[in-house]
Amino acid sequence: MIPHDAITLELNTDVVEWCPTPGKQSWLAVGTYQLNEATGVREGRLYLFSLTAERKLELVAAHDISGIFDLRWHPRHDSPLIAAALADGSVRLLALEQVASWQEVCCTKQQPAAMAVSLDYSRHQGQEGSTLAVSYSDGTLQQLQAMPTSLVSLLHWRAHDLEAWAAATDHWQPALIFSGGDDCAFKVWDTRQGVGAPAWVNRRAHGAGVCCVASGPWQEHLVATGSYDEKARLWDLRNASQPLHIAEVATGGGVWRLKWHPTDPHLLLAACMHAGFAVLRADAAAGSVTVAEEYPHQKTLAYGADWCREVGAEGDSTVATCSFYDRLVHVWSPHIKAAV
Question: Which of 18, 67, 254, 296 is placed for a possible disulfide with 87 were both Cys, Cβ 3.0 to 4.6 Å?
């Protein structure tokens, strides 16, 4: 890997998200979470950084908020808008006011008994950003209608017996929602059929809790999952009633985050907790997924990872990652070249 920058923040860092909005793709949102031992309050701060031509981070804005577990930029919005899953159980939408400060637009009710731990915008063409799928620490999932100034609950249901660590939408089928939980279950929900029972569930493939799910944006029916059992897996969902587990790879650490590359359909970025970060090469046709490159930042837990949407003409990629207890945000490039 080729390092570009590293900065230390005031609170533990756990999520990074590059802005997808054209003209703003050098913007990086960073979320933090830390338990205040004196007060028992889970504190957080939302940062916005701008990446310079030299690939250094410059601070643009910071906003104190409840502890942040996950962030998602709106996939298609005239002005940048971000959704945050928070430790107080709420989901909040925030916009940038005159670029220099975050402005809270709206939020759902706080839930004292549950934390919002993951979320994902709908991404199906023509419906981008119309709904949010959210998972909670009490094992429930919620589908929210995302309007410019409000979030309205459409569905809220019991999805897992333990913490629901992951909620993800399907890039190709707007009715499908994926979830993963600490109960080792990977589930597919079809909202056209109701959510009284999953359309499909697998409880055997993962040897520990399912931490993340990522629908393939370049190939229909391809989905990746990450687990505490230190493996990333590929799934073929052409038969939605019986998805096929087609490949897996050991990463050396629990796979908390997986992100598909913005231009290369075969590359995945992984945050692997105690094993640092890795670039994976996935080939669904060959039934394989391998570790192509590693950034073994093993000083602390590797939680956040994302690809910058701006990719060089020769396939040079920029990555942001973050690690928890050392409060570091890293900007780097893998040696591997991406297809563009």
Answer: 67
